Hints:
Layout: H1 3-38, H2 44-68, E1 69-70, E2 76-83, E3 89-94, E4 98-99, E5 105-111, E6 115-125, E7 131-142, H3 146-155, H4 161-182, H5 185-188, H6 191-208, E8 211-221
Antiparallel strand pairs: 1-4, 2-3, 2-5, 6-7, 7-8
Helix pairs in contact: 1-2, 4-6
Amino acid sequence: MTFLSLFAQATEAAQQAVDVASQAVDSASQTVDVASQTSGQLPLPALILIFCMPLLCFGLALSLFLLRYKRCPTNKLLVVYTKTEKQEKSITVTNQSRFILPVFQDYSWLSLDPMEKEIFFEDVKLPDGSRTNLVANFSMAVGTTEDLMQNAGRWIAELEESDIMQLVEEMIQHRSEHIIASMPVNEIRRNDILAARIRESVAQDLQRIGLVPLTLNISSST
């Protein structure tokens, strides 16, 4: 079963929920007429049952629709997981509202709010043999282009923010070691040049998991 067919089923299910609700209202109206005509022939419990059944159907259809229809806030992305024929997950990331098909689909959220991380580089060895301590204040966010959203849905949608921060810290530290080893000492001590080099280098790694760097400031620490 392809995603397009599942999406078509979801749309059809949503339409059916609306149709059922409309039919339930009509049925309830008809039930009132029948009940008024047969009130002298049927016992009271039967009349109550006849009147309540359409309302119950209406309530169930409306509840299903409301529970599975997800309105996407402006500061989040909706990640939809669809089961395929091979029991694998097809991932779709969108900033639009969606009806989540029961059984076949699940969902999670990705926040678009910026994330910040302070990273300490202790006892960093410089090319001239001296050592220094550095502090990096880094901020990033989930990208909003199609490719970046799909990467984020695939790699970080099911991670806690603390796990994402840990992953980013490892990326920055790994890149920083190679950059510092290859830069002249006078450029390393100019924190703005070092920050620009690290930011440019780590941006490629972040994009692979759907993130974009926003700011990176580096300062010396005693």
